[in-house]
Amino acid sequence: MNYQNLSKRAKTVMLITAMIQGILFAAAALFIIANVFGRGSETGIVLALVCAALAVAYIIIVPIVRFKRYRYLIEADRIEIIEGVFFIKRTLVPIDRIHQISVSKGPIDSAFGVAKVSVITAGATATFRFLDEEKADEIALHLNTRIREKLGGSPDVQ
Questions:
Q1: C-alpha distances in angstroms, 105 versus 21, 112, 115?
Q2: CB atoms within 10 A of CB 127
Q3: Which of 113, 117, 114 is nearest to 103 (CA)?
């Protein structure tokens, strides 16, 4: 079994996403601290510094850990996605249970040339995140072909 890792572009997108989340967390925490303790309070200043340190640690650590742990596997009978920062999630989807495949991109994804492939079954959705656009299209076409073969249809029929 050869698990695939993500490209370096994915690491950049993960970093930007973590920066946005960290800044939003810090802003919300600072707003609450300022309103609860007041702007000149020593307790408020200490809590604000702690929140800022946590936000910086989140921005530095989360993208590195997420990038190292994220991998996926596409076999003849199943797909497997392993991801997580604090809790590792392993998703297994049998190829013959797939109902729909979609490729999507958000604004940050588009700016860095990455995309998501969502594989929808009757019970759940599995998503390959942070894939290069070309790789995302390749995976979607490959899965579509495998599904058509399993169903007994011609891979050339659209």
A1: 19, 10, 5
A2: 16
A3: 117
Q: Which two tokens stand for residue 25?
A: 């967390």
Q: Model confidence over 55-93: pLDDT tens digits?
A: 999 999 999 999 999 999 999 889 999 999 999 999 999
> Torsion angle of alpha carbons 30, 35, 39, 45, nearest 10°?
-40
CA angle 13, 66, 53 (to 5 degrees): 85
Quote the tokens at residue 74: 């596409």
SS (H, E, C) 61-74: HHHHHHHHHCEEEE
Name the amino acid, one letter, at 57: A
Indicate left, alpha or beta for 91 from its phi (over 0: left) and psi (-120 to 50: alpha): beta
In the chain, alpha helices (H):
8-37, 42-69, 107-112, 133-151
